[in-house]
Amino acid sequence: MVNSKYCHHCYRCIHSDDDHPNEMKENRRIEKWLKQEKHRLKREIRILLLGTGESGKSTVLKQMKIIHGENLDQGQQLEELRHVIYFNIIKGIKVLIDARAKLAIPWSNKTTDIQSKADLVFRAETNNLITFEYFSRYTALIDLIWNDAGIQATFHKRNQYQLSDGLPYLFGNLKRISSLTYKPTNQDLLHARVPTRTVLEYSVQYKGVSFHFIDVGGQRKQRKKWLQCFDNMLTSILFIVSSIEYDQYLVEDSTINRLDETLAVFELIIHSDYFHHASIILFLNKTDLLAEKLKQTKRIQRSMSKTMDNYDYRPQLINELFPEYDGDATNLQQVQQFLLTLFQQRRSYRPLYPHFTTAVDTENIKRVFNDVRETVLHENIKSIINLQ
C-alpha cells in the first residue's frame, strides 16, 4: 500500500519547485540561455577558411580586419611586430642563400668576398625574439646579397623550392624597415608570412547578421585541426587556392605537384559528409603574382637573355605539366579559366561561387567580400527569416 503522505504522482510531488526553488530557477535560466544561444548561432554566418599551405588564407583573414577598420598591430607590442618582419627577411635571405648553393648558381659579385658575408648571414639566429639592434647587424649584408645577380637568378627559379611570396616587397622596403623609428604598417604585415599553428577566429556584423571567420593551418600536419571546425552550424567553406602553384611541389613531399594536392583536398571537402550543408566559395588567389609569372615566362620565351642562358633557366609551362590545357600558356585569362575548370570538374552537383583575388590588395578583397556577403546572405536568407 502506498504511504498516504504521498499522492500517486509522488515523483512530481517530491521534486516540486517548492522543495528545490533555487535549483529549478537555475535550470530554467540555463535552458533559456541555451535557447537564446542556439538562436544566435543560427543567425551567425560561420565561414571556414580552407586550403593548402601558402594559399593566402591568413592574409584574407587579416584583410577582413583591415576592411572593417582594424589595424593589424592592435594588441601587440612594437618589438613583437618588428620581430615578425625581421624574421621573414632573415629567414627569406637564408632560404635564397641555401637554394643558390644547391642549384649551383654562381655569385656575380666577385670583389667583396660575398660568400663569406652570405655565410655570416646564414648563421644568423632566428629562434629567439629578433630586436632592432640584432637585425641592424645584418641589413647592409642582406641588401648586398639580395641585389646580387646570382641571388636574383635563384629567386626566379623559386618554383623549385619554398619561398614566401611577400619577400620581394619586404626586400624592396628594406631601407625603411631598417630605420630606428620603424613601425610595421598593415601592408608590411600583410606581406609577412607566419604559418597558422592554431585556429584563428574573427567576427564582424553586417546587416544585422554576424559573420564569423575561422582560419586553420593549411600544411598537411595541421589539417587534423580542421575536424574541430566541422559542425552543423557551419554555413560556408571559403576554399583558397594559390594560382601560381601549378609548377611547384610540396615541402613535405617533393614528388607531389602542389596544384594536384590542392585539387585532391578540394575534392575531399566537396564530397565530405561534414560539408554537405555548406555553400562552397572558391578564391583563386594571387592573381597579381600569376600575371607577373606569365609575363616573365613570355619574355623568356621570346628571347632568352645571356644571364638566363648561363643559369640554364627555363620556366615550365602549364601545358607541359597539365597536357589537357590547350590554350596560350602565357595568357592570364586563359590560364585562370583553365584553373577554374579544374575545380569545377570536381564539384559534382554542388554549386560553386568562384572569384579571382589578390589577397594583399585591400581594395580587391573589399570588392570581392561585398559579393561574398551578398551570396552567403542570399543562400541563407530563408533560415534567417524563419528565425524572426
Task: Summarize, please.
The chain is α/β, with parallel strands linked by helices. Helices cover 48% and strands 10% of the residues. The N terminus and C terminus are likely disordered.
Arithmetic mean of pLDDT: 84
Helix content: 40-55%
User: Under the CATH scheme, which architecture of the largest domain would be assigned?
Assistant: 3-Layer(aba) Sandwich
Low-confidence stretches: 1-17, 384-388
Terminal Cα separation, in Å? 53 Å
Structural class of the secondary elements? alpha/beta
Task: Please indicate the percent range of residues in DSSP E strands (runs of 2 or more).
Answer: 5-15%
Can you identify the CATH superfamily of the largest domain? P-loop containing nucleotide triphosphate hydrolases
CATH class of the largest domain: Alpha Beta
Q: Secondary-structure element sequence?
A: HHEHHHHHHHHHEEEHEHHHHEH
Question: What summary fits the major beta sheet?
Answer: 6 strands, mixed
Side by side, the strands of the main sheet go 2-3-1-4-5-6
**Number of structurally distinct domains:** 2
Tell me the total number of β-strands. Answer: 6
Taking Cα atoms only, what radius of gyration do you get, to the nearest Å?
Answer: 27 Å
